[in-house]
Design a protein that fits this description.
- The structure is a single chain.
- The chain has a domain of 108 residues: Phosphohistidine domain (Glucose Oxidase, domain 1, 3-Layer(bba) Sandwich).
- It has 8 helices and 11 strands.
- Strands 3-4-11-10-6-7-8-9-5 form a 9-stranded mixed sheet, covered by helices on one side.
- The radius of gyration is 23 Å and the shape is globular.
């Protein structure tokens, strides 16, 4: 029932097209050092968290009245470790229902296809419910919307803000350049030096372990790549966008809001990413 951009009922789920999952698995298989395997890194991270907890706990115990503080710390630590993952549960339930909606619409689409009113079963997702009920010129409507969709998918510059009145504001045309690099917004602390890899599709398996991921933006379908990359550079985003949050969760530096990063940064460039200052330096082209 899960999939890329899964909030869109019209897009295929992984059970319908498993190719994206296979692509991510290829990236994991290409990891050569066992110490960098995702499960090993997860175990190492969990151990580091518990060691840090023990260090803070012992420090509190040594303070005056520290027993009460340590008890509060213990309670909060256990609650966080046990329940933080529940934040994803509402979306899980919602997406599960979206799968049922998709299957129901596909049944209607199959019926309309058999009647010759649309060409493909999935054409149903280009129609409004009111249009399905009227059943007038469905093929023409679908054809027009497919063309419009195809055209919009080629758009590179998406408005940053669209108001309720239809006004829109785009990103500035000028890039915030500095000597030998660019300035963006710091989103996850740390400094990493490595080779750049520009990725436009989250299921492009060309990213190698330790390379710096440069992309337009991310959503949950990009998450497996965070196990491979050493740092993140995004064209769009802020402190609370998906890429920034997942970068902090994985402990890798991230700089976001680097306009036209995927155009100006080329594969193979040697970069230094400072997620604390938001500066991306080009060390070698």
């Amino acid at each position: 029932m899960r999939g890329t951009a899964e909030i869109d009922v019209g897009l295929k789920r992984w059970r319908e097209n498993p190719a994206p999952i296979i692509s991510h698995l290829k990236g994991y298989v290409n990891i050569e050092d066992p110490e960098n395997y995702p499960d090993i890194e997860f175990t190492r991270g969990r151990r580091e968290v518990h060691n840090l907890y023990n260090k803070i706990h012992n420090k509190l115990i040594a303070e005056k009245g520290g027993a009460v503080k340590a008890s509060i710390l213990k309670f909060m630590f256990r609650r966080t470790r046990s329940l933080a993952g529940m934040r994803e549960f509402p979306k899980f339930v919602m997406v599960k229902h979206f799968w049922s909606f998709r299957m129901a619409f596909k049944e209607i689409g199959l019926e309309l296809k058999q009647l010759g009113e649309i060409e493909e079963t999935d054409d149903i997702f280009y129609l409004k419910i009111s249009e399905i009920r009227k059943r007038e010129n469905l093929s023409t409507i679908v054809r027009e919307r497919k063309n419009a969709y195809s055209s919009e998918m080629k758009r590179r510059n998406v408005p940053r803000v669209i108001t309720s009145k239809g006004e829109f504001y785009s990103y500035p045309k000028n890039v915030d350049k500095i000597d030998n690099g660019f300035k963006g917004s710091p989103a996850s602390p740390g400094v990493v030096t490595g080779v750049a890899r520009v990725i436009m599709d989250p299921f492009d398996s060309s990213l190698k372990k330790g390379e710096i991921l440069v992309c337009p933006s991310t959503d949950p379908s990009w998450t497996p790549l965070f196990q491979i990359t050493s740092a993140l550079i995004m064209e769009v985003g802020g402190m609370m966008t998906h890429g920034s949050v997942v970068a902090r969760e994985n402990g890798i530096p991230a700089v976001v809001g680097v306009h036209r990063a995927t155009e100006l940064i080329k594969d193979g460039m040697q970069l230094r990413v400072n997620g604390s200052t938001g500066i991306v330096e080009i060390l070698e082209e």
